[in-house]
Specification:
This protein is 30% helix and 27% strand. The protein has 296 residues and is of the alpha+beta class. The protein is globular and about 65 Å long.
């Protein structure tokens, strides 16, 4: 009843998808990813906000929280390459209302909720990659390009994800992930289904060194009306090879690849490295405040 007074009412997945098409979405709120999780057994609720008979937004909820909000205490992690750092709610830019749900991971673009805060009341941040065009020094750009040439002259090669089948891509990532972390990622079967269904949404290169795959940065790409959202999920690499800085090289080449893709689509790029959990992100990213919704 409280939500209806505020202009919110329950809706179905199709209505939510309609709002996503109208107002945009990111990886956390992507209706295709939401539907995939539902096929894996997840249960979500959907609500839509309307004013004067016009729908101005919608939200996917998980036990009263925004779906794919990592701070939700009741969230069930399916261990899929779907981020949970900053949820963009598909919402009209000029709409203002009270949100009848909870979140501590509200996307910086969602400034229309009157019961949200993006200041000291919300301590979480998100790291967005700097532009390779104008946010790195000339010295840094020269160094990165020299590292690439040195690797190529030493038997290194870059091969795009699109050259591999989904199963090949997953197996390479699985092996390189284990090489770096000492264990395989969880939930292999569902991840294989994800790689198969969203093969064209995976962005990046695999570094081959002297004929063998040695490094792979997994990025998920989500284009929508709001922009091109690219999320750095994880990296796998052969840590026994010390001749080259594969991680640094991959981050640079994939950053340029993401920028090029955004230019092709004529979209603003939001390349997320997640929360500021490691010092290296300070070199590559700018930080933005994530919002918090206060439940009334």
């Amino acid at each position: 009843m409280f939500s209806r007074v505020l202009g919110w009412e329950p809706c179905d997945f199709d209505r939510y998808s309609e709002a996503c098409r109208a107002f945009g979405f990111n990886s956390e709120s992507d209706p295709d990813f939401i539907q995939f999780q539902m096929e894996m057994g997840r249960k979500f609720d959907f609500v839509a906000y309307s004013k004067n008979g016009q729908m101005l937004g919608a939200a996917c909820l998980d036990n009263g929280w925004l779906a794919n909000d990592k701070t939700n205490p009741k969230r069930i992690d399916l261990h899929l390459p779907i981020p949970a750092d900053a949820v963009y709610v598909p919402f009209h830019d000029d709409a203002k209302c009270i949100a009848p749900f909870r979140s501590k991971c509200l996307h910086p673009l969602n400034k229309g909720f009157l019961n949200s805060a993006f200041n000291k009341l919300s301590k979480r941040q998100i790291c967005y990659a700097k532009s390779p065009i104008d946010e790195f020094s000339k010295k840094t750009v020269t160094t990165r390009e020299r590292e690439i040439r040195r690797l190529q002259n030493d038997g290194g090669d870059f091969q795009e994800f699109s050259k591999f089948t989904p199963i090949q891509l997953q197996e390479i990532y699985w092996d390189l992930y284990k090489a770096r972390r000492g264990e395989f990622p969880k939930n292999k079967n569902n991840n294989q289904l994800f790689f198969e269904k969203f093969h064209d949404r995976l962005l990046g290169d695999i570094v081959f060194y002297k004929g063998e795959p040695c490094a792979m940065q997994l990025n998920v790409m989500t284009p929508s009306k709001k922009g091109l959202f690219v999320d750095y999920i994880n990296i796998g690499l052969n840590t026994t090879i010390k001749d080259h800085s594969f991680g640094t090289i991959l981050i640079w080449t994939n950053l340029k690849k993401a920028q090029q893709k955004a230019a092709e689509l004529n979209m603003k790029l939001y390349y997320s490295f997640g929360n500021p959990s490691a010092a290296y992100k300070d070199r590559w990213c700018n930080k933005e405040q994530i919002g918090k919704i206060f439940c009334l």
